[in-house]
Amino acid sequence: MSLCIKLRNQKQFFKLLLANLRLSQAKAAKLFGIPKTTMSAYCRRKIGFPKSLFVYLCSFAKIDISKFKGTEYNAHNSEKKIKIPVLDRCLANFLGILAGDGHVSDYCYEVSVVGDKDLDKIFLSKHVFYLFKKLFGLEPHFKLQDNALTCRVYSKKLMEFLNETYGVPLRKKKNRLHIPPQISNNKIMLKPYLSGVFDTDGCFHRHHKNTAAVEIISGDKTFLEEINKSLTSLDFNPCKSGKSVYLYRSNEIDRFFCEIGSKNEKHLKKYHFYKTRGYLPLQEKLMRR
Predict the structure, then answer these.
(1) How far apart are the C-alpha atoms of 102 and 105, rounded to whole Å?
(2) Distance between CA atoms of 109 and 160, rounded to whole angstroms?
(3) How do residues 186-197 score in pLDDT, each as one tens digit?
(4) Facing residues of 212 across strands?
(5) Considering only the top CATH level, what class is 184-287?
(6) So where are the chain's domains?
(7) Side-chain half-sphere exposure of 84, counting CA atoms within 13 A
(8) What is the CB neighbour count within 10 angstroms for residue 121?
(9) What's the CATH superfamily of 2-75?
């Protein structure tokens, strides 16, 4: 049960919020870790929102809280029971996926993974869907918006479990990401975790005419350094540059796909092409095949 509020002049409140911050609705939703559709419902006064969020937004945007009144109520969440899994390779892989393109919110209790509606469709609809059901007993829903496909569930218990047990950051992830110590200190679990990160925030692409590269990308410098050290601990020889960690050696690329692996068809398709043809075409040429 959580305390919510529905403001009498809620539309004016969110209009003032966006004006003070000089942000669009979409950018404000991203800043505060609120799903776009939920933010839109708040702005149109279709639904109330958490009182704690109201207080925080007023403080953040320097809005006089006394000027906005509304009806407070307790939201009774019909919380579904979830399975609490022990750490295994599947859970480690799921945590790596969340570190890449995942989102966990303590406002609406959303746990989701987003990807490209075409390139990641099979990965999300089969592998990520399977992990949600196998690990937690929850059946996710899908949302298509523009070019993005989101696989998501709403569960307070799952949000708390991920955050409290494995330190998964809530809302914004940048500069707050870390490989959980239960995984970084366990090479057996580290491999499926890295696979999850690669499947969401990685790519396999052409390097030179007849060479290729495995790349993992992150805007979080600390997390990227942890990825770099993890690969080194597994006897790889990564190169770190900017926001990326690379593997260039052909024998290490083979080891990566053999030992760490991938569940994302877009990576596997490229690797199969590379192994059978001895080279990788440019991305746009590969996608036409």
Answers:
(1) 10
(2) 9
(3) 999 999 999 999
(4) 206
(5) alpha beta
(6) 2-75, 89-176, 184-287
(7) 9
(8) 16
(9) lambda repressor-like DNA-binding domains (1.10.260.40)
